[in-house]
Design goal:
With about 150 residues, this protein is an alpha+beta fold. The protein is built from four helices and four strands. A four-stranded antiparallel sheet has the order 2-3-1-4.
Length: about 150
């Protein structure tokens, strides 16, 4: 089974149909390949990197475009156990990134420097999830937050 690595055209079209001028948070779940799979014409093809090492290279190469986008990583963790959900959807890395607007995320993805960096991510990842969220103010309990429903 092939994992989910890059967004589909349909998913990106749906992303662009949502409001572009509002803050967003992106939940990232990542499972690494044991050995990175770079294209044969890439300089790192014969480097024998692990998926985690290739993902770290992605982080370094994408740092400047990420900074230019105004993005900020607001939470990072290593998942340990899935209590609810398919056990085969175990993840190596989970993090949440906040962008000032959805348009700033799109600008980062279109940045030529980012587009060069993404080859490391593609070489590193066996499967992933990227979930766009509308940030809300947390309440005193848990769930929807104070006075907020599902819409």
């Amino acid at each position: 089974m092939t994992g989910f690595i890059d967004p589909t055209r349909e998913a990106m079209a749906a992303f662009r149909d949502l409001p572009a001028d509002q803050p967003i948070a992106m939940i990232n779940l990542v499972r690494f390949l044991e050995t990175a799979t770079y294209p044969t014409d890439h300089p790192d093809h014969a480097a024998a990197r692990t998926g985690a090492e290739a993902y770290a290279a992605y982080g370094r190469a994408a740092a400047a475009p990420f900074a230019r986008s105004g993005g900020s990583q607001i939470w990072l963790g290593r998942p340990e156990l899935t209590l609810i959900g398919p056990a085969d959807e175990a993840w190596d890395l989970a993090f949440i990134v906040r962008y000032e607007t959805a348009e700033s995320f799109i600008a980062m993805v279109r940045d030529p420097e980012y587009q060069l960096a993404v080859v490391h991510r593609q070489a590193a990842v066996a499967d992933s999830r990227l979930i766009r969220c509308q940030p809300r103010v947390a309440g005193s309990g848990f769930g929807f937050g104070e006075g907020q429903g599902t819409h």
